[in-house]
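ping. complex inputs:
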Amino acid sequence: MDLALEGKTALVTGGSRGIGRAIALALARQGMNVALAARDEAALRSVAAEARAAGAGAHVHACDLREAAEPARFVAAAAQAFGRIDLVVANAGATKRGDFFALGDEDFADGFALKYFAHVRLVRAAWPHLVRGGGSVVHIGGIGGKTPGAEFTVGGSVNAAVTAFAKAMAERGIHDGVRVCVVNPGSIATDRLRTRIQALAAAEGLDEAAAAGAMARRLGIARFGTPEEVAAVVLFLASAPAAYVQGAVLDVDGGATRTI
Ligand SMILES: NC(=O)c1ccc[n+]([C@@H]2O[C@H](COP(=O)([O-])OP(=O)(O)OC[C@H]3O[C@@H](n4cnc5c(N)ncnc54)[C@H](OP(=O)(O)O)[C@@H]3O)[C@@H](O)[C@H]2O)c1
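pong. complex structure:
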């Protein structure tokens, strides 16, 4: 299957580790140039080196995407580096979990700053480039946006808002020739999940492996997913064979979401 990605350019936020890193490397292996944004410049440089080893061009932009001007700066730097932008993967996100009454306005504002406003600002800045080349956007949401939980009030709200924004821009994209989709990871084995497993292990006096098993059972899934399994779906959505997929919201969650 020809994915028709070679020689094109992708922006990946949160491309320094976890799901974003896996997405960036999957795109690089298809011959896409990748522009990566996150705060940790050394981690970004290390992923960029891996992308270059796969034969791709790579550009890094170390920044805090919660700062209002950064998404547009990232877009401008990537456009200057590669001369075109064909794909935006809005992935960076970090929302605080916990009991609602232990969370303050600042926790909600922080979650929205990175995973809602940065996504909006990124799409606003990149849109003219995407229109020019008939490109696409993939937002990385999360299944908590469809199935909210009491321990995940910030994340559930942010992911639902990102999905609403993506669906609205998908309508705009029908006319502008830009596809916009959402991928909802379930429980994916990244640093963020490991922190949750360690917290469960500490709370229940289990070792890490036992806590991981207990968490998977409680979630009703056979196992945790891998960042590469999320990346494979992003790769498809970005590709030519997905040309008629517009506004789709895809769960990559091992079956955790039981509802339609
Ligand atoms: N893992 C899961 O099970 C899961 C489930 C559902 C949804 N998701 C979603 O998938 C996405 C990626 O998750 P992940 O598990 O791969 O997370 P992760 O391993 O914690 O990686 C997060 C990435 O975002 C970057 N980032 C964090 N804060 C930033 C900031 N203020 N400015 C710029 N970059 C920032 C991080 O780099 P720096 O820290 O260096 O900035 C890192 O590259 C997130 O949107 C998350 O909500 C994940």
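The beta strands are 9-13, 33-38, 58-62, 87-90, 136-140, 179-185, 249-252.
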